[in-house]
Design brief:
The structure holds two protein chains of two kinds. By secondary structure, chain A is of the alpha/beta class. Chain A has 19 helices and ten strands. Classes of the chains: A alpha/beta, B mainly alpha.
């Protein structure tokens, strides 16, 4: 790898296009991951597909001009030259951000976090300098109550049309519930299931019961679960048929017992499960839609399973952080991302389905017919949205910390 | 006393001012905040609510495993660093000859790379396509799992801290007066006796300070277990990160941080006591 490639990698990394989830999330340590991965042979855990590390510049899967629709920066408003976007890894096409810079002169600095909890923790601590945040549905009551996000000034978002958004995905951002104060507009949505590598996992896997039982049996030490209380506890609760969102002490106690029982059989507790799945260290991993899409795109034997008992369905948002230092640029960026053509092109990169029906109609069939992205309705029906209480509940937080440190 | 002693005192104060300010601002003040936080309670949405209770300290035993893990791994790794580092330092100081400079450069070389990248490199080496694949090719069945085990954390820690141990030992051995070895030989001591009774005691200060240099940061280690332990091998550092960034339980996190400081202080004091007693014994036995 020559110096220029390295610098490019490093820049992409800083912008969050080739980072890995948990890593940057907790530690800000993506550099090594990306650099090493890029230097390693493809079988040794190559980085995210579509990232410049995996393909030569200019030949990524999202080739072609990035559209901007009819979007132009708002007239007579000074946007400044930077914008701080705090989001999740592998979640934005760098081309989308570059195009925004071409149009506005605003450079988007990406900070990557791996959990809503850590985003909240840093906002509570204050002084983040963040402008745009990408929170998940269940966080809004807390953010609104703590006034950490601002209610959106819709006049500054002329390209956003609430009527084309699927109501159940957009709804959580209205706070208090049912009011017309909107704290975020949808980026995309997705599900939380698990990926299996069918090269090794040959029997049919359909449920969370299968997942937890086979982890303690046939695939011992070849499985990863998220380092994230919401999903790891939630999906353990599903084993017993309890609600994904339960905060009932007796139900949580059973989930804790299961997690402690499973822990010695895990390969890792990590939200950064693409590398072990690619390296075949792991043959099964708790996973989100987009990661499943990206893994399956590169390794077709990797399939995605949504537990038949249920689990999580979620939607993510673009929000403006209260006291954002680059407020005008934040609004301009969110408005730009609300342009259906822009959102659709971006989705082709990250692989998460969109809540805006107009944007969805622009997506190719390879996307809209992909069963990982759009699972069968009967699989979606039992899924639950995360509940606000799980974000702040001390028992769940403490349970998870106990399990991890056991 | 006269002006003569007052002026140097003013100069001393002036010279020490930056350090004093540094420690007050960046060590004592944060420490005070930590103590205050540790007496409070977690607010319902996370964070800190003022309070005055020792509950958080009473809860420390729920993290006993993390403390035990940290202490055991740090102690054993320090010992391992000494065992591996000593012969290397000995070779460098006494046998390397003209190659010494280049060898010393090689020991320092890894430091030119980020700690993180060095650690992450083990990810590839210990992962399924690294050493386990080699072992499997050589007929080892079943294919061993190395990554995300205690062993991996061990390797990562010892590898990263080894040079910190090598240098103090090297310096103490390098300064060792060769005539003492000759005297020992003249007095009839064999190689082993000379090493045990002359070389080792005289290099003990290097060993002791190397031990400190390695042990203390190991107790606060976070990155290696996070990367090579797969979230399953848990140090106090990892538990702390969870408390601040996931549970947002600042008071309990503060109590735990203080717990860690206390454990480090106690073990370092004990270690220095033992080291000092060893020196006294050696000196008296020499008489």
């Amino acid at each position: 790898m020559d110096r220029r490639q390295f610098q490019k990698l490093y820049r992409d990394l800083q912008r969050g296009t080739i980072t890995r989830r948990e890593f940057l999330a907790v530690t800000g340590l993506g550099t090594a991951a990306a650099v090493i991965a890029a230097c390693a042979p493809p079988t040794g855990g190559s980085p995210t597909p579509g990232s410049p590390a995996a393909t030569t510049p200019g030949t990524s899967p999202t080739t072609g001009a990035t559209p901007s629709g009819d979007w132009a920066p708002p007239a007579g408003v000074s946007l400044g030259d930077t914008l701080n976007l705090t989001t999740w890894p592998n979640y934005h096409d760098q081309k989308t951000l570059d195009k925004f810079k071409d149009l506005t002169g605003v450079t988007v600095n990406v900070t990557v976090e791996g959990a809503n909890e850590s985003m909240l923790a840093k906002l509570q601590a204050g002084g983040t300098g963040w402008d745009v945040l990408v929170p998940t549905n269940y966080t809004f009551p807390t953010y609104a109550e703590l006034k950490l996000l601002e209610p959106l000034e819709l006049a500054k978002l002329p390209h956003f049309d609430a009527s084309t958004y699927e109501k159940r995905f957009l709804e959580p951002a209205y706070q208090p519930a049912g009011s017309d104060k909107l704290y975020g507009i949808n980026k995309d949505w997705g599900t939380t299931g698990y990926v299996i590598n069918t090269e090794t996992v040959k029997e049919p896997m359909t449920s969370w019961k299968d997942f937890w039982d086979k982890t303690r049996d046939a695939y011992s030490r070849k499985v990863t679960i998220h380092d994230y209380q919401l999903t790891s506890i939630g999906n353990a609760l599903k084993y017993f048929g309890y609600s994904f969102n339960s905060v009932e002490p007796s139900e949580l106690a059973k989930a804790e017992q299961l997690l402690l029982d499973v822990k010695p059989h895990l390969f890792a507790i990590t939200s950064d499960y693409q590398p072990p799945m690619r390296a075949k260290d792991a043959v099964m991993a708790m996973a989100w839609t987009g990661d499943a899409v990206q893994l399956n795109r590169d390794i077709p034997t990797i399939q995605y399973v949504i537990g038949s008992e249920g689990g999580e369905i979620w939607s993510d948002f673009y929000s403006v952080v209260a006291g954002a230092p680059h407020r005008e640029a934040a609004y301009a960026f969110i408005d730009y991302m609300a342009v259906p053509a822009v959102a659709a092109k971006d989705a082709e990169f990250h692989g998460y389905p969109l809540a805006d029906s107009v944007a969805t109609s622009l997506l190719p069939e390879s996307f809209t017919k992909n069963p990982i992205i759009y699972p069968d309705e009967k699989l979606l029906t039992p899924l639950e949205f995360g509940a606000a209480v799980t974000l702040t509940d001390e028992n769940r937080a403490e349970l998870w910390a106990r399990v991890k440190s056991a | 006393m006269s002006r003569r002693s007052r002026r140097p005192r003013a100069v001393t104060a002036l010279l020490l001012a930056p350090t004093t300010a540094w420690y007050l601002l960046l060590l004592l003040a944060p420490l005070a905040i930590l103590v205050i936080f540790s007496l409070g309670e977690r607010s319902p949405v996370g964070g800190y609510l003022p309070g005055l209770s020792l509950d958080n300290y009473a809860r420390l035993p729920t993290r006993a495993t993390a403390f035990a893990n940290t202490f055991a791994l740090a102690a054993v790794s320090t010992g391992l660093c000494a065992l591996i580092g000593y012969p290397l330092a000995y070779y460098l100081a006494t046998r390397a000859g003209s190659k010494r400079t280049i060898l010393l450069v090689l020991v320092v070389l890894p430091f030119l790379t980020s700690f993180l990248i060095r650690t992450y490199a083990w990810f590839t080496i210990l992962g399924a396509n690294g050493l386990p694949a080699v072992a499997a090719a050589l007929g080892v069945e079943p294919k061993p799992v190395l990554l995300n085990t205690h062993l991996a954390v061990f390797v990562g820690i010892v590898y990263n801290y080894l040079s910190l141990m090598v240098f103090p030992i090297y310096v103490s051995l390098e300064r060792l007066d060769k005539r003492l070895l000759e005297a020992s030989k003249d007095l009839g001591a064999g190689r082993w006796a000379t090493f045990r009774q002359v070389t080792l005691p005289l290099s003990a200060p290097g060993l002791v300070s190397g031990g400190l240099l390695v042990f203390i940061p190991m107790m606060g280690e976070y990155i290696v277990p996070a990367l090579l332990g797969g979230g399953k091998v848990f140090f106090v550092g990892n538990a702390l990160v969870d408390l601040f960034l996931q549970s947002r339980n600042w008071p309990f996190g503060s109590a735990m941080a203080i717990g860690l400081i206390v454990v480090v202080l106690i073990s370092v004091t004990a270690y220095l006591r033992i080291a000092a007693r060893g020196r006294v014994e050696r000196e008296t036995s020499l008489l």
